[in-house]
Amino acid sequence: MFSQKLCGPEDAARTSETYRVLRVVGRTLGWQTSRCEEPVFTASLMENEAYDRIGDEPPNYEETSFSGGTTSNGNGTSNGEHRAVRPSVVSAFGHDTLDRVPNIDFYRNAGSVSGNRAVRPSLQELHDVFQKVSVEGSDGTPSDDVESVIPLDNKDGTVRFGWIKGVLVRCMLNIWGVMLFIRLSWVFGQAGWGLGIVVIALSCVVTTVTGLSMSAICTNGVVRGGGAYYLISRSLGPEFGGSIGLIFAFANAVAVAMYVVGFAETVVDLLKENNAIMIDELNDIRIIGCISVVLLLGISVAGMEWEAKAQIGLLIILLVAIVNVFVGTGIPASTDKKSKGFFNYDAKIFMENLPPDFRDGETFFSVFAIFFPAATGILAGANISGDLKDPQDALPKGTLLAILITGVTYLGVALSATVVRDATGNINDTIATGMDMFCNGSNTAACEQGWNFSSCDVSSCKFGSMNNFQVMTMVSGFGPLITAGTFSATLSSALASLVSAPKVFQALCKDNIYTALKFFAKGHGKNNEPIRGYVLTFIIAVAFIIIADLNVIAPIISNFFLASYALINFSCFHASYAKSPGWRPAYRYYNMWLSLFGAVLCCGVMFVINWWAALLTYAIEIFLYVYVTVKKPNVNWGSSTQAVTFVSAVNNALSLTGVEDHVKNFRPQCMVLTGAPKNRPALLDLAHCFTKNYGLCLTYVNAGMEKNQMWLNKKKRKAFYAAVACDSFRQGTENLMQASGLGRLKPNILMMGFKKDWRTADTAGVQSYVGVLHDAFDFEYGTVVLRMNQGLDVSHIIKAQGEGDGERSPGAEGSGERRAASVTTPQSPQVVVVNERLVSNSTQFQRKQGKGTIDVWWMFDDGGLTLLLPYILTTRKKFKDCKMRIFIAGQPGRVEQDRHEMKSLLEKFRIKYADIHVIDDITQNPNSNSWKMFEDMIEPFRLHEGSKSTTLAEALRKDNPWKISDAELDTFEEKTNLQVRLNELLQENSRAANLIIVSMPIARLGSVSDHLYMAWLDILTKNLPPTMLIRGNHKSVLTFYS
Predict the structure, then answer these.
(1) CA gyration radius for the chain?
(2) For residue 349, which of 437, 423, 457 has the smallest C-alpha distance?
(3) Angstrom distance (rounded) from CA 213 to CA 233
(4) Which residues make Cβ contacts (< 8 Å) with residue 358, sequence separation at least 6?
(5) What is the largest CA-CA distance in the chain?
(6) Where in the sequence does UniProt note compositional bias of the Low complexity kind (predicted)?
(7) For residue range 441-469, what is the model confidence (pLDDT) as tens digits?
């Protein structure tokens, strides 16, 4: 807020200029001015136009009395609309200025949920306040992230979780699964506590390294909803993110079924013990599973707040059950418990359980594969990242602490010092007092405790850590609490997965990577709940619950999760390896090589767990990756893939600079003067055939660079773009020829259209066009000029159809004003037919060419470019049915010898051809009709000084130096005759060719006038099929050496 009062004549005189400025600005902003010319200008920050409501473009300026103009609409045209003027403010610098001090609002994305986005003044605004043409993207803000564009009205009342409730609790509940109570003792029985610790440690290494990598990624910027998908896609790009996002969302949906089936199996076991089976065990699992998932769905749909409360309740039950286990180990064992192998803490039992005792074909890796799913679930917090108060702080802290707590818990609950491996469960298998029995074998510890379990060496027993999955229930102080803990572990994990899957899937759908899934992007309620995603997850879960077999579901789930972990680790490594300045994670305790090790370790663990499931996971991921790559979603998240691509490109370009050019590695690298590429499609299509995906195609664009880039990408024309600000077509082209490219990656061929309107164009236009050709020769560019009878420029048609802006290149074909005027009047049927024919011809190189010929008139040796370019065309699919015919000039009486020499040369070059024609009458004079046509062509540009007096002739030369003199015609009579005669021969031999290639004549600089040169080019290519004039730079581009 600021105010200023102007009073008194001395103030008015002293501040008249300031007053006038403030008055104009004040009027525009609606500030109030008093009648006594004592204006008080007041503006609040919220009304400051520097804060852009939409966040798309910087505000335009109103042109005031400073320039005496009218209001600009931002496009260079004037209208009566008054746009808001960005006000200057009294800043920290002590004076009114448009400059702004650094502020976080300038760096927000459009639609930011944490504050309004402000638009800083653009450089053009500061440099020229009345700049009429707004520059796209001048605000310098990051490209909008679809994930961040959340309706602002959802902001109020949204539930957000801290690091404990949102991350720590969820991760612990997801990691503590059913494995904790019914498989952990078996794992330690098989592997012994020595290798058992290795199993747990290896699992924790995988999850810890992944947690460190995730912490680095999620602290490198604001994290939105989507969990693992968001982290991977924003780091590695949509291809990796889209493929793993779909897999990860599906894995979470199937994980719901896995956990619910585990819960249902436990319930069915209880029913079985009490003879309460409803139908049979398999169908009872299905019934209980479906009922359970319906209840879980109700909790989830009720909202994140209710789901979080349910998770807290389940955590309390689970913690009580874990404490119950530790309490039970301290209670003196009863006779019944001893008969089942439990003897409280005993050092001898601990030492007996140290070595492994793998049975039933189990190995270290098979045991590890069974345990590892118990360590997954570290992404439970990340999956609801959009519902966290501060994901950057919560995710590292909560995830890593959860890994530590659960890892210690698994080690503590292992019971390796209290339970023997085998026990009979028979209370009568005791050793009588005074009985002298030597204790040895596998049951030494139990023997020394007074129990004889030697029968377990002969036949299998039902108790002990190796045989009884309910050891935890037996050891605990109160058995039903372990059952409740098992229920809590399975249901909490199922609930976490039921929430995670729709959240990840919704984030994936919002990014519109898979357009068919856009339906599921819509959210509901204050928390933007993915109700549609919940329903889809429910359907998937029910489908897998019907299978009712954990052994079928579990391997695929584990591998899907591991694939996500591997990519998170690789994302961290990749971002660090790229060394992009944008990689600045706040979390510092990570290492790029450790992340790479984690990624490799995850991939290895996938094969250890289940090799066929690992191959299936990779196959699905590769398929989705290829699909997203082909679809090319229109997103740009500044991924590390882009950064590494840039670094690789720079390194490769630098390495090329130290290598000399070699003729065998020559590639056509074209600079194509198209104006807007859509205006001359034939020129661009032919250049694309030359370069394809292996050369450099660079088009000249004089405006709308980003728009033309998008058009070329849409048309799959792989090309680079350059735009220059210049006063003339020639100057701009000269600048491009000197500055375009990088190192060895620079154009070596200039390609342009023939200037068909040279006879009606002004002299400066012709001189500019011919000057470009001279410049190309001076800079040693190969030169290609394409002529088509109907013309190349279709800009007037595009403009009439409303598909473009009719943008023109000033050097080609004709006056834009004349063409633009032609579409303002109703078109006659004849004009419509001509336009249709023009459009058809302009796209002919986009179609497959029928059987025919490419006639190459190789008149002059230019290094081989005239021969190489048509050969390249014949290797393309569009021209594969076209045969090459070679026409050369020969001397009378040497036709066969010249043909044989050319045949030998072509064979050495390994260039296929259909025929060789030797023209031995090329030196004959053209017929009278052809010559008359040429004379009529140049008549308006001749001086005819021969019929004038010397004085008058000199005056004419001085006034019209660009005109064709009689002396010039006499000097170049033979060369002129050659062009006219060549046209006759072309008409005679190549009238039916698909494409004609002719060696371009060169006009000696300063000797041949521009109009005479244009007449040569015109008469040479007149009334012919599509014709290309080619002149190499006279350096070899062909070789027959290996």
Answers:
(1) 41
(2) 423
(3) 14
(4) 190, 191, 364, 367
(5) 151
(6) 67-79
(7) 667 778 877 788 878 877 888 888 888 77
